[in-house]
Write a structure and sequence with these properties.
Two copies of one chain form a homodimer. Chain A is an all-alpha fold and 352 residues long. Chain A has helices at 28-31, 35-45, 54-64, 71-82, 92-115, 127-130, 133-153, 157-179, 188-213, 218-245, 248-251, 257-260, 266-272, 277-287, 294-306, 309-327, 335-349, and strands spanning 120-121, 124-125. Chain A contains 17 helices and two strands. In chain A, strands 1-2 form a two-stranded antiparallel sheet. In chain A, a hairpin with a 2-residue loop joins strand 1 and strand 2 (124-125).
Amino acid sequence: MSLGLVSIKPMPKSEVSLKLHSQESDLIDFIEPIKFELAAVEKELSTNLIDDNPFIDELLASVLKSGGKRIRPMLVLYGAKASQSSAEEIDHKEIVLAVLTELIHAASLVHDDIIDSASLRRGTQTVNKRFNDRLAVLLGDLLFAQASICLSRLMSPIIVGIYGQVLGDLCAGEIRQMKQQFSVSVNWVEYINKSIAKTASLFSAGTRSSAILNQADDEVVDGLRKYGLHLGICFQIIDDLLDVVGSSAKLGKPTGSDLRAGVITAPAMFVLERKDEASKKLEELIATRQICSDEGAQAALSLILESGGLESAVGLAQKHGDMAKDSLSILPDSKYKDCLVELIKYVLKRAN
Amino acid sequence: MSLGLVSIKPMPKSEVSLKLHSQESDLIDFIEPIKFELAAVEKELSTNLIDDNPFIDELLASVLKSGGKRIRPMLVLYGAKASQSSAEEIDHKEIVLAVLTELIHAASLVHDDIIDSASLRRGTQTVNKRFNDRLAVLLGDLLFAQASICLSRLMSPIIVGIYGQVLGDLCAGEIRQMKQQFSVSVNWVEYINKSIAKTASLFSAGTRSSAILNQADDEVVDGLRKYGLHLGICFQIIDDLLDVVGSSAKLGKPTGSDLRAGVITAPAMFVLERKDEASKKLEELIATRQICSDEGAQAALSLILESGGLESAVGLAQKHGDMAKDSLSILPDSKYKDCLVELIKYVLKRAN
């Protein structure tokens, strides 16, 4: 399906040295202005800081080399460039910040896949499926440890505090999601809080901290914090939407996975709040747990598609995209600020 | 059994307000000079810093209220008192340091129990057994998150670095243990490295950081670092020994658990390196995995008891206890330094 959002002319791919996962090739558009920095991030991501042990090298590489969008490192690097007062090269600390932001994301995915008993991620088997839960626990902890070592290298207690809160938010987000499982009552405040905890808190930590490292003015730091926050909420809504429309190949996991697991996504919530025939049918599918079966999930997906749940979700995502854009108004104009705007469009375009 | 180590006269128990697990009542001897600080640690341990969510309160309390020796908070508090230049009250930051040191310990236990598929810890069911692996992953992460938030409050990048390395060491220790499972080759360097990574790294981080927070001289910081390191190694050896002689009630898990799981402990290594009849029999029990059965584990325990494996292990523990004591020589004399010495005796006395 096309949601009629902005399309962006791709850059010649030969100019880009960074290997991205094939399904994410449209991200290549954005990386040109930060390609050297992103290459440095890739190099540091696969560096084992913990122990001189080939098994640890192997474990770390098994998750970190599996691709991924690297959207969080991009946010840090563009945040750094856009909040710089001069056009100097960015400080090595910004690379370390980008690396640790991706490490925390990777760690949370590995542990989330155990918690959700997921078997597929980014089109490949999850660590818990390929090996077992025990190794996945260890690998997640290794990634958190590596992130902590990076964090200490920034020599910034404020940023340690920001990321400490992010770790708490990631756990709290998972708990909020558990608590809302199979719930048919629509509570948008709770939904937004869950999206912040699960996704936007880390986005926002990255953009905000990049400006803190640059010793940018408080207004710039706060502008980038809000940008990350709203972009993160927007990203989470689009993720919900892809659970309805994304093909298994594009999403890397089967369509309807969230619904089957009782995670009531934004498009489903828009149907549920209508209190009409469609919402009653959806409520019944959820309450009776029929939604966990192939037929039930398919019926729920059809209801959402027929009842405009998708369009409403796109509208909400667009609203947070606009708020992200508005948050940038405090930043001086630059090509990097433009890239941050383009990144909003990319996040929205994922639904195309 | 008695290994003839020093016994310490108990303090009147009525003077002590802190509730300790019954099996650890002999620790009451030590807490008098720091009882108010330890009470503050207990209070902060059960404070949820993450999210206003009763489920999180409940999860945190379920592990943190289950007792435990609190030996790591004691190390931090005595390190703080002994490295202070004046007799003032200790800074609140030392309490936070004691809390986060215990939180990291608790988190690593919860995740280790998943990795080891353990069902009993401190005489009660493990989180993975009582609930499931998924909740145990989340609870361990919550405890790490809470520790990170505490860490940020110290405003010390150096201490963030020290604890970042501890997190890496804890993972590396688990991996080293996995790699040495069912190995009959005796490598003491590898054994000591594993003991440092699993136990001594966190002990040492606590004592060292307590002195750093006090802005103590480098020699004092290093003395306390070495003290924690050798006491941690000593503690790990005694833990190995308790796997052979400790009753299930005292240890909180069945005797021989480590051996059954293929973890070759110090007493077993002392038998294996003898290259005599006993060592050949033990080698066979390990190589054939007979050691995993009740009869095999019992046969291995008997071999260790008959071949002096225990006495040799006590000797090694005593050696590291002595090295811990020697490391304190740089510290000025005080009743708190005396308590650190008593703590070595307590650790050794656990084998009585």
